[in-house]
Design brief:
heterodimer; A: alpha/beta; Rossmann fold; B: alpha/beta; 5-stranded parallel beta sheet; 13 helices; 7 strands
Chain lengths: 325, 323
Amino acid sequence: MRNLNFRWAINEAIKEEMERDEKVFLAGEDVGKPGGPFGITRGLYEQFGEKRVKDTPLSEEAIVGLAVGAAAAGYRPIVEIMFMDFIAIAMDQICNQAAKCRFLYGGMVSFPMVIRTLCGTGLRAGGHHSQSLESWFIHTPGLKVVMPSTPQDAKGLLKSAIRDDNPVIFMEHKGLLSLKGEVPEGDFTIPLGLADVKRPGEHVTVVATGKMVHTALGAAQKLSADGIEAEIIDPRTLSPLDAETILTSVRKTNHLVVVHEAPKPCGFGAEIAAVVAEQALDFLDAPIKRITFPFTPVPFGPLEDELVPKENDIMAAVKEIVRRN
Amino acid sequence: MVMEKNLRPEILKHMYWNLVLARRYEEKLCELFSQGKIPGWIHSGLGQEATGVAIGECLKREDYLVPYFRSRSSLIAKGLDLARLTAEILGKKTGCCQGRSGEAHIAEPYLGIIGAGGIIGSPIPIAVGLGYACYLTGKEQVVVCGFGDGATSRGSFHESINMAAVTHLPVVFVCENNLYAEFSPQAVQMNIKDIYKRADAYGIPGVSVDGNDLLAVYEIIEEAVQRARAGEGPTLVESRTYRWHGHFEGDACKYRPEGELEAWQKKDPLPFYQNQLMEMKVIDSAQAEEAENKIREMIEKAFEFAYASPMPTREEIMEFVYA
């Protein structure tokens, strides 16, 4: 299989879906002629033209509204919110309109649309260009939330998201864009709502998302040298959650650590901890640990690096609960 | 007036029917609400029905209407079945949204009625999306997006009209300026009197019209719709009118100056239009009375149907969250 970086896996998914279905179109700030702020959408404008690859004004609310209305009319829009921090501007269209309208309209119309957005740290760009805001959307009925960690998952999940009849928030971690990995050519999809065991292990379950999957994998390799085998689970789709894969793992390992880049309170880790506490508490041999960003905005510059969860943080948490017994 | 000569009598009569129907329907809703027979709340459009009637008349079946929440006259004029509308307002399973929507979020997608919601100004970006779909499809479909003066203070108004303008989308933005945004007069909301002039900021035509003169509104909206259909882009229409009742039923309107309502009621769009048609000999008083009787019967039947309909069950209400 050929290697492709994360960026080109996304590009390929969009290209293939636009070739496959003329109802699919792309819109957003600088996605067309400029090829996207990170080059993700390069070549699409040239291939599909300015109508189907639409450069928009800097108007996040109207960009999402564009998708809501076009989806209601039978199209399958993909819109880009350049940085996830900017998505706050469009919250009404996402959470009050896209998420609710199918319900409010008695199921008569669906809203098949994908909101792609760049999340996470890595640019040292500070408080308005670095957040991971998945929790806002996991909390909202009517939305699906996807956060891939590998080029292969990015392609397969984005193609499924585009074909899904619901609004999907698709989070692309900036720190992963240049990551290379094997990506199947052609029509390859991964169903939404299916977690992936990225590394099998018997002593502790580590649930991690986005770039943290790779940090957790690094930690797992080092823990292995100490005789601790961590099972790394990437939920990939955060809503709907594949709870069963996580519960099955916890019933086997009896230990749980959750790692994410967003802050702790009401974060994705809180949901995982609650699901496990509700359905598998009796299997736990130690308290659940959450390794997250501190409860602070992302600071500018090198300080960012210090606050993002590290392999050492994960290793310390794992050792603390596994060695307890 | 040129318009009166050009318009076919069927169109004039059809608008008359819709205007009377919208008026009597609003009166009935308000009456039932005051008796505690309507769940939720009602935002009455009494006094400003003419704009919605004109909008409906200008649109074809395949065109989209993103309705102004107060404009039941636009829903009726776009062809929404009165019984389905009434059942929805009562939260019944036989309603056009199966009882999920209530008064505020009425939709009937097969008629192109979509995008309404309970948050003032939020439907405007959705109208731009529908307009983009029309632009991609290229079949001369248009969108009319209605809203009140209050909505023009939202960022969604600015973002949407700018986006529609820069892409020349076939969307007609119709602002019914009824002088009040919720409980506050226009002077509290904006430092201008002429909302239509905001169009200048987007490089599109803006035009104001007496919203209580149905034929004048029809003429202006029809022209804007034709422009949109011809691919010439959006227009902002300001239809100047007045809200007879409060923001919602039960609002005592203490914020209104004395005599203001009475002055506007003298400019009631219904008798004004009726007199025009009688002078034009399009209708006579016997026909007007006949229409009133038929409409009264139709409204009674719609409410009978709606009150007799079942509510959705607790289990059913969970449907439709995901496709």
